[in-house]
From TrEMBL:
<dbReference type="InterPro" id="IPR014729">
    <property type="entry name" value="Rossmann-like_a/b/a_fold"/>
</dbReference>
<feature type="domain" description="DUF218">
    <location>
        <begin position="219"/>
        <end position="367"/>
    </location>
</feature>
<feature type="transmembrane region" description="Helical">
    <location>
        <begin position="379"/>
        <end position="399"/>
    </location>
</feature>
<feature type="transmembrane region" description="Helical">
    <location>
        <begin position="185"/>
        <end position="209"/>
    </location>
</feature>
<keyword id="KW-1133">Transmembrane helix</keyword>
<dbReference type="InterPro" id="IPR051599">
    <property type="entry name" value="Cell_Envelope_Assoc"/>
</dbReference>
<feature type="transmembrane region" description="Helical">
    <location>
        <begin position="115"/>
        <end position="138"/>
    </location>
</feature>
<protein>
    <submittedName>
        <fullName>YdcF family protein</fullName>
    </submittedName>
</protein>
<keyword id="KW-0812">Transmembrane</keyword>
<feature type="transmembrane region" description="Helical">
    <location>
        <begin position="87"/>
        <end position="109"/>
    </location>
</feature>
<feature type="transmembrane region" description="Helical">
    <location>
        <begin position="59"/>
        <end position="75"/>
    </location>
</feature>
<dbReference type="Pfam" id="PF02698">
    <property type="entry name" value="DUF218"/>
</dbReference>
<keyword id="KW-0472">Membrane</keyword>
<feature type="transmembrane region" description="Helical">
    <location>
        <begin position="6"/>
        <end position="24"/>
    </location>
</feature>
<feature type="transmembrane region" description="Helical">
    <location>
        <begin position="150"/>
        <end position="173"/>
    </location>
</feature>
<dbReference type="InterPro" id="IPR003848">
    <property type="entry name" value="DUF218"/>
</dbReference>
Length: 404
């Protein structure tokens, strides 16, 4: 009975996925991903519900409850780090639930899912640290070769060196220091583990935020500026931001015959010949966007100012209210969303694709910026980690002294 149920469920899922992807084959990648995730989640929930009805159990309400909690807070305020913790809490509850269902209803499908995840986890435990170091070193080489040699572009190298140093301290340190002081050697590892958890949370919510699907009823698309080539020409990275906004402009125009205005936001740096927004407007004009459909904001020098000054322009243009979104590179839109919220601008972001080799360094740079924004809590946690290791060392010293 259970085998027949699972075979039918698997056939239904595969057929549904194939038909869906044939149907949406001409849509963009983000839209296909959203619909595939929705279909997979819906069919998995339906399968689990049928399996539980057969067993007369209702454990499914636990992960669904955590998802409902995440869903409520996420769509209430998307650009919040707490949403990442809520989503990961949902994932943990889901994996525990799948484990319970695997044995309570003899579910071959959930056993297969957990088996695949288990193999992956085993590979991470066996080779993850060394693979990560090799990957970071290789990625740092690519970034160093293809991008400017600034500190911001060396973050993957810095992280790799930090992991190597912490590993060496943990391996060699115990042979060089008294036994009671060994917990002190754990400080670098503990700090890295804490930062990994925070980074995982940031990465989770940042990737989810990229699934934004704004309605084609916007009045404005804010395009966030970036540095210019030779102080006057749009860089490839900035061009992708503008192209993303233009793509939304055309999509809304096709669906509603009322395209949004593009608001180019970016001031003039000390090494730039023209404001970024002027160069951005010229690029958009070359792409066929009418002059009257482009506004410029020429005073901002940071993402926070992008949002604040753009908000002032939109409120002046439409004092009775407006709808707006913003466009930037995919790794940047979550932090930009945090700044939009900070200035009271109700707008979600749409992300432009970034070269794959640059993404690890880019996400690390965004993570460092997030750490700075929330620096107080992270400093407190760092101090607590250090004090905890010191306390354990002193306790071991006291035990050794008392025993001796």
């Amino acid at each position: 009975m259970f085998i027949a149920r699972d075979v039918v469920a698997l056939i239904v899922y595969l057929a549904s996925i194939i038909l869906l992807n044939v149907w949406i084959s001409k849509t963009d990648q983000e839209e296909r991903l959203r619909k595939n995730l929705f279909l997979t989640g819906g069919l998995l929930s339906l399968y689990c519900l049928i399996a539980e009805i057969q067993q007369r159990t209702f454990y499914l309400v636990i992960p669904l409850g955590f998802y409902a909690l995440f869903h409520f807070f996420y769509f209430r305020d998307k650009a919040r780090l707490r949403n990442g913790w809520l989503f990961n809490l949902f994932l943990v509850s889901l994996f525990v639930y799948l484990g319970v269902l695997s044995f309570s209803s003899i579910s071959l499908i959930t056993i297969g899912i957990l088996g695949i995840l288990g193999v992956f986890a085993l590979l991470v435990l066996l080779f993850g640290l060394y693979s990560l170091i090799i990957f970071l070193l290789w990625n740092s080489y690519l970034v160093f070769k293809r991008e400017s040699r600034s500190l911001a572009n060396l973050l993957t190298l810095i992280l790799a060196l930090g992991i190597i140093i912490a590993t060496v301290i943990r391996r060699v340190g115990p042979d060089l220091v008294p036994g009671w002081s060994e917990p002190l050697l754990f400080i670098p590892t503990a700090v890295l583990l804490y930062l990994f958890l925070v980074f995982w949370n940031f990465l989770s919510i940042s990737l989810l935020y990229q699934l934004n699907d704004p309605k084609p009823d916007q009045d404005y698309v804010i395009v966030l500026g970036a540095g210019l080539i030779n102080g006057e020409r749009v860089s490839p990275l900035l061009a992708k931001r503008i192209d993303r906004a233009i793509a939304f402009y055309h999509m809304q125009s096709r669906k509603t015959l009322s395209p949004p205005q593009l608001l180019m936001s970016g001031g003039q740096g000390s090494d730039e010949k023209v404001p970024e927004s002027v160069a951005m407007k010229n690029y958009a004009l070359d792409q066929g966007i009418p002059d009257e459909e482009i506004l410029i904001e020429t005073h901002s020098t940071t993402t926070l100012e992008n949002m604040r000054f753009s908000k002032d322009i939109m409120e002046r243009e439409k004092p009775d209210g407006y709808k707006a979104i913003f466009a930037s590179n995919n790794y940047h839109i979550f932090r930009a969303g945090m700044y939009a919220k900070q200035v009271g601008l109700k707008a979600d972001g749409i992300g432009a694709k970034t070269a794959k080799y640059y993404l690890p360094n880019a996400f690390l740079r965004e993570f460092v910026a997030i750490l700075v924004i929330k620096k107080r809590i992270h400093i407190i946690m760092g101090v607590l980690i250090v004090l905890g290791c010191i306390a354990v060392s002193l306790l071991q010293l006291f035990v050794e002294w008392y025993a001796g």
